[in-house]
Each structure stands twice: as structure tokens, then as C-alpha cells.
Amino acid sequence: MFFRLLQVVVHGEMIEYYDISGCYILRPWSMGIWEIMQVFFDAEIKKMKIKNCYFPLFVSSSVLEKEKDHIEGFAPEVAWVTKSGKSDLEIPIAIRPTSETVMYPYFSKWIRGHRDLPLKLNQWCNVVRWEFSNPTPFIRSREFLWQEGHTAFATKEEADEEVLQVLELYRRIYEEFLAIPVIKGKKSEMEKFAGGLYTTSVEAFIPNTGRGVQGATSHCLGQNFAKMFEINFENEKGEKGMVWQNSWAYSTRTIGVMVMVHGDDKGLVLPPKVASVQVVVVPVPYKDADTQGILDACTATVETLSEAGIRAESDLRDNYSPGWKYSQWEMKGVPLRIEIGPKDLANNQVRCVRRDNGSKSDIKRDNLVEQVKTLLDNIQQSLLDAAKQKRDASVQVVKTWDEFKDALAQKKMILAPWCDEEEVEKDVKERTRGEMGAAKSLCSPLEQPELPEGTICFASGKPAKKWTYWGRSY
Ligand code: 87F
Asked: Which atom of ligand 1 sits closest to the CA of residue 77?
């Protein structure tokens, strides 16, 4: 599967390998997808009165290590600059793995009274985490792009509300743009961000590998960082209080999940909403047919579609055969291919071929725009439906440890009643250790199925408190 992901992203021209392991070049084909999601998300957070900013890439060691507990588990992944030219720096400087410690000293400076709240910032940037386990394009790279939101409120209620608002935006990115079904949920104590109060996430599932993947996270940090960085404010009554904070992010990992969920034997399959080219128009000249007429029809078709806001391009290269072009655009995942040959020209029609299911239809050039729009909408919806069907077929409800073991062996995403105890999750990890990697909790869905009185935990036999998804994960 990974083998396929690796091949597909390179041949599909999304990624080029680089001479530093775990670092990848994002070519226009993948950067275009990132930019489309960025336009959506950026507009949505601006509606929420969140403002963009940019903090430095570098962190001093004293600030980074200010919160020992939070950094402890992550320390091995922090990359350091130790030299400039040939001389050692007096004090090494870290490269941000995330920006809590970069930003919060300034939150402390900027927040004085309740009128300074809420403070709601976001930045689009790169971060570096020097991972050692097998790097994978998009899914686990040493440098990646993300947005990180960091907000501070006077009350916990406001923070709680925002956590879920942002989580809903993440759900929309996955479902409406990437056509990937996700589950909104809360992380266990073991899997949450240790520096925070609680963590919510959207979780996707890759049926082919039987692995869950955390799609994006929205944390309520509580007052932990406020304590550490002295982010205090005075309320209307002149009383001192500490702010309540959130942080949230989604990254270029989204693209990797999309590749794995929709990709097939022919390569990438891009959902129309994120494809930088939604329609590719290929001329199919034939012997002494009117070649120029066909080329002109292609150009005119692209023009008509572009004017209607559809992202269309023609492929008029004369050094490749139509068949060669078809497979190249299939490899790149363009949602819809339009072919124009002599017969189409004569009938004032074009031939449409869907990337997702290969189905063909001839449409009249008179209502080209309307029909192409309908086709693209259908493709978008079909991709989500198909992914949802596969995902749902991979979900297994279990009640006992034996059922759990069986379902895990069958690469399922497992929904089980759980006692919600950290020791029990540790035990599950321990008992499922192996070359495939241990199972862990993915999330407890916000929408909980009914839990009948007397239901017991699948792993401990104690009374169950909630339904939780379990599985192997990326
Ligand atoms: C790696 C090295 C150092 C993750 C790290 O999820 C620190 C960290 O704090 C680290 N890897 N984390 C947790 C990041 C938490 C949080 N940050 C803002 C998010 C969303 C965006």
C-alpha cells in the first residue's frame, strides 16, 4: 500500500524526492490542492474573527524547554541549528516543531485586561519534526506545511465552543473537499496532547491497510500554558484571572489521506473540488480529418468552461498520442476527460470520460457548461459515497476481547464499549504488540450510540463508560 502511495505521488507529479530523507518537494500538482483548501479555511476562520500572523521559525532553547512536561516526550524530534558558517553558535537555536512556546510569551505581553480578549491568531507555516520512523510523503515528513491556530479567551465556555467550531471546519475539509468521511471525536487521556486539557480530532480510515489516521486536531489547552507563560488578565471587576486557550491544526497530511483513500490501479483520483485541473480536453485527430477544426474545438471548449469558472485545460501536445495522454491524465487523477474527435466535431458534441468509474457520455456543446458541472458534482458525491461505503464496511462493533482480536486481524476499525481507564488502554497496547504495530484508541465519537445499562468494557470487563473507536493507526 505504501509502495503504491509512494509510486502514485511521484508518477502523478505531486511529489519529487529530495536528497534529505523525509523531505519532499511539493510540486504544483499537490501545492494547488493545498492552496484550494487554504482559500476555504482561511475565509472561514476570518468569519470567526481569527487573524493571520507570522512568528519566527526559530525558538531559543530556554523558551522551548520552559515547559518540561510538554516537551519531554517530543524532545528527540526537535531539530537544532548549532552553527553559522564554520563557527559554533554560542547557544543552539531550535527550529519550531509547533509554536506554543514561540507565541505564548507574546500572548502574555499583549493580554492585560478583558478588553484584550479574545485573542485569536492563526499562522500558515512550515514546521520541522525530525521523525525517525519510516518517513512517508504527506503522512509523515520531517518538514510539513500546516495552519496553526492559537486563541485565548476569558472563559472556558468560549474556548469549548471554538474547539468544536474548528473541528466542524476540519470535517468539512475532509468531507466536502477531499470526499473523505471522518469521525469527530475526543481523544483518550493517553492519546491527547499532553500539554492540554482535552483533544478533539477528526479520524479517517484507510480500508486497504486497515489503519486509522488522525486527520486534524483541535485542542482545548485549558489554563496549563497560561500558568506557565503567565498569561493573565484583569476582568471588569478588577479581579485577576488566567486565560483559557485553544490550539488547532491541519496539515499537508490531508493530501496523503486523500491519495490513499481514492487512489486506484491507474494512479491518483482527485475530487473535483480540490483538483487544480478539473477537466482536461484532449484532441483525437484522425488521418486526414479536419485536425485544425478539432484543435480549435478543444481550445473553444476550454474557454467556455473556464469562463464558467471550471478549471479546464487542453492537452494539445503533438508529440504524444491520445492514448498516452489518457493514461498520463489518469495517473494525475484529473476528474473528467473530454475527448474531441472527427465524429464529435461533426455532431457538435464532446465525449466525457469520468476518472472515478470510467463511464463515458457524449454531451452536446450547446449545454456543455451545465452538463460538465453536473458531472463534476456527481463525481464529487460518488467519491464520498464510495469512500463512506468502504469505511462503513470496515467498521466492526465488538463486545468482547476475542471479537476485538478477530476484528483487528481483519484490519477493521473497531467500535467497542470501554471503561475509559488509562491502564486498560496501556494493557490493550501491550496485548496487541507485534510487527504490524499495536492497536490504540482512535477517538470516542462525539455522537455516541446508546450504551445500554450494564454494558461492560471489551478489554477489562469493568462497567463501560463510552463507545470508543480502536485500531492500528498511522
Ligand atoms: C514535536 C516536537 C516538539 C507535537 C512535537 O496539535 C513538540 C511537539 O508539542 C508538540 N509534536 N506536539 C504537539 C502539538 C500540539 C498542537 N500545537 C498547535 C497541535 C495543533 C497546533
From this structure: 2
